[in-house]
Design brief:
mainly alpha, Lysozyme, 2 domains, two-stranded antiparallel ribbon, 14 helices, 2 strands, 57% helix, signal
């Protein structure tokens, strides 16, 4: 799980988050009841609200983890990339480029994002779906963080987006499992990004970023494309594409690692 991506993303969004009626702090159940009213006003059905929030509890482990986070990154690029991009991961990525060649070609044609960038992100975020995508109930995690007053508006927005994921039928409630800030799936989308950029690319009528490789890769491409990524242009530091990747991760060191990994995947 890539904590670097989380801390820079949350730090960038906190000032832009909307204001919600539910007051943070105080009694947790009272907060949940107030938030439930907000959710209903936003169009979430009572069935979804009741099933998701009816018995939700605080998670002290999530709060403890959140307070341990460090909002600076001290490794050099060389130190960081050595821990993230090794021969095994490069070879695995190259095998997946071949296995999913037809799928990746369709995604390239529709979204204009090169396949090696998508596979690099996939590998870094979850070891191509084989690694740890998180084991925590997303609703419990986000309700805990929304109740906490440090970034309450931000996480109330993410909690509402998570309820929308359930209401849309993208994931069942018992399959809405993620990491310590509610990140979901093989490329670790926060719920708001899931709603905004998620794509049903396998045509089964729902956006499944936990199990569907076509949905995972196309949604990742859609996020980058929507933020200005252009096919055929360079993506090294200083380029327009490098800046387009800021929506994925604002840390320069991480975006450089994506580019480094992508180049190795295609033999550069």
């Amino acid at each position: 799980m890539l904590r670097l991506r989380l801390v820079v993303f949350l730090g960038a969004l906190v000032l832009a988050a909307p204001s919600y009626a539910a007051r943070c702090g105080g009694n947790f159940n009272t907060f949940v009841q107030s938030f439930s009213q907000d959710a209903a006003s936003a169009g979430i059905s009572q069935d979804v609200i009741s099933s998701a929030l009816g018995n939700v509890q605080q998670d002290g482990g999530v709060l403890a983890f959140d307070r341990r986070q460090r909002y600076t990154f001290k490794k050099t690029f060389e130190q960081y990339v050595a821990t993230r991009v090794g021969p095994g991961r490069i070879n695995g990525g190259r095998a997946l480029l071949q296995r999913h060649a037809a799928l990746l070609a369709r995604i390239e044609q529709q979204y204009g994002v090169p396949r090696q960038i998508l596979v690099a992100i996939w590998g870094l975020e979850s070891d191509f779906g084989k690694g740890d995508m998180g084991k925590l109930p997303v609703i419990r995690t986000l309700a805990t963080l929304a109740h906490d007053c440090r970034r309450s508006d931000l996480f109330q927005g993410e909690l509402l987006a998570a309820l929308k994921i359930v209401q849309r039928g993208d994931l069942r409630l018992n399959d809405l499992i993620g990491a310590y800030a509610g990140e979901i799936g093989q490329t670790q989308f926060l719920p708001s990004s899931y709603i905004k950029y998620g794509v049903d690319f396998d045509g089964d009528g729902r956006v499944d970023l936990r199990h569907s490789v076509p949905d995972v890769l196309a949604s990742t491409a859609n996020l980058l494309h929507s933020n200005g990524f252009k096919m055929g242009a360079p993506y090294d530091e200083g380029s327009a594409n490098f800046e387009a990747m800021r929506e994925w991760n604002r840390a320069v060191i991480y975006r450089k690692t994506i580019g480094y990994f992508a180049d190795r995947l295609v033999g550069r």
